[in-house]
Amino acid sequence: MEFRKAILREVPDSYRSCLSTHPMHGNVNVEKAREQHRQYRNALEELGVETILLPKLNEFPDSCFVEDNAILLGKRAFITRMGASSRSEETKAIVDTLMEFFEIRDCQAPGTIEGGDVITLQDRMIAGLSQRTNMDGVRQAEEWLQRKFDTIEARDIMHLKSYVTFVGEDTFVSTERFADHPTLQGSKVIVVPKDEEYGANTLEVNGVVLLSSNAPNLKKELKAEGFETETLEMTQFEYCDGALTCLSLRF
Description:
Strand content: 25-35%
Radius of gyration: 17 Å
Number of strands: 15
Distance between the termini: 9 Å
CATH architecture: 5-stranded Propeller
Structural class: alpha/beta
Low-confidence stretches: none
Helix content: 10-25%
CATH class: Alpha Beta
Order of helices and strands: EHEEEHEEEHEEEEEEHEHE
Mean pLDDT: 95
Number of domains: 1
């Protein structure tokens, strides 16, 4: 899938207090996170993507994870209704920017859905039914975006794309837990080594697969399958349960 633009949001001053259960959460360094964010933005631009950087929202510690705010397809944007109450107001700050490019519709209660749960393919979408996304939210997104949604139910996880991502060429990267899920049948699945599970959150951008520098064995597997790869240091986002896909809205 070709991307021409991406929306990013600056890392907030309050980032260290974001929602996270990671054991290293207390070690978050905001300035280092900002440097890693700059490297991420530079990588997108080097791959031919024009980036749109939105100002930081210090009142929302998780607001740099802008992907969760909307689901984009064609000329339409579905504004999400966040599953975490502390993030419920984030979406209001992105609507004006999205209206420059898309027709928009908001998810309505009792639906909840977050972008981190949605994988976009050429002919369908895959949504995780997780802690943050429910079936009502998926049905509303399906209706507005006019695209079939398949689902993977995993109520104990935050976001599906922490476990499964699509890298093109009819190939998924997945942790062992979801590698044999019926929704992925018929496609090639590269299983992430057990000690590199964070690496499952890859991001394919214009023919190059971006992945965490902490997943060297996964990188070898991707290269062996013919994928061009680039690694980025993501430690400060890993500590806050975030990753590559979370940090931008691409279209």
